[in-house]
Write a structure and sequence with these properties.
Length: about 375
Amino acid sequence: MTSAALDGFYSIIPAGGVGSRLWPLSRADAPKFLHDLTGSGQTLLKDTWDRLAPLSGEQRIMVVTGRAHRSAVELQLPGLADANIVLESEPRDSTAAIGLAAAILERREPGVVIGSFAADHVISGDALFQGAVAEAVAAARAGYIATIGITPTEPAVGFGYIECGEPLDVPGAAHSELVSSFVEKPDLATAKRYLAGGRHLWNAGMFIARADQLLAEIARNKPELHAGLVELAEAWDDPTTRGPAVDRVWPRLEKIAIDYSVAEPAAAAGRLAVIRGHFQWDDVGDFASLAKLNTAGRSGELAILGEHARVLADASSGIVVSRSKRVISLIGVHDIVVVDTPDALLVTTSEHAQRVKAVVDALRLGGSSDVL
């Protein structure tokens, strides 16, 4: 573990997205990052803050979130400086969120190294995590855009993968490797081959770079988007110019994930480095992964979440999430998912947990936004 904050390093926490595969627990007004999904007693957002504070210091953490979540975020993070909360008027995907933060910080502190870490992932093994970030910062100072790939523990089909290339000779980043390519979510046979080969890592969506070099990569691949981000950043720290600039620029920014605007083209050009992360990581992408997380991966067990959950179970396994006072009885059902809230009930199985997003899409198309 690092004994002190990394010099010249700024953490960015993009706190956006609804987590639609965790509906009806995760909603537009109470997204995934504002829930305690691990039993830690605090939200995933606060867990993320606590993990990053030793690396950058509390005054050097920026949070990018929606306007609707400002009060909840500030309540969770009393140490968050007012100048370091960036509010999106509407979601424009991760390039806009992270790119705007980078542009603002580069204007305030030219040459700053930034790291972006999702607000809603679960990580354990802080010493290993902090060591990996320190190596990624060293790689960033050497001119690379860096990412942290997670050493796979199983042939997972729910994650994207990073293919590792040649080792790099970077001082302070002994475990850095060049990235050969990014790979979309594979089928099971391919995932098994990746696991056996040892050259593929899970893509955890962590990116560390000098802010100016991240912005240069966006400029190469998405020049109009880059121009908009720079225009916003120039107006950001003046309250009289920020609002008009946001109203003028933000709605026309292209929606694109940073994986496509920065990571993939940087990898193709030999500008992307990866550090192998050996800490435990999960993006808690659906209820199957949430069940696994809360039973320590032991099949045949039932995970129960909810402070006042009233569950009676006999020969049953899976997960129950209760946000109501109803008694929930399960008899002889396996790998079941039950999510009970005051206005919506979800029942499925672990096998079909990824399909919850389709239910959310159907509700949206049907005009049932009151439960979203």
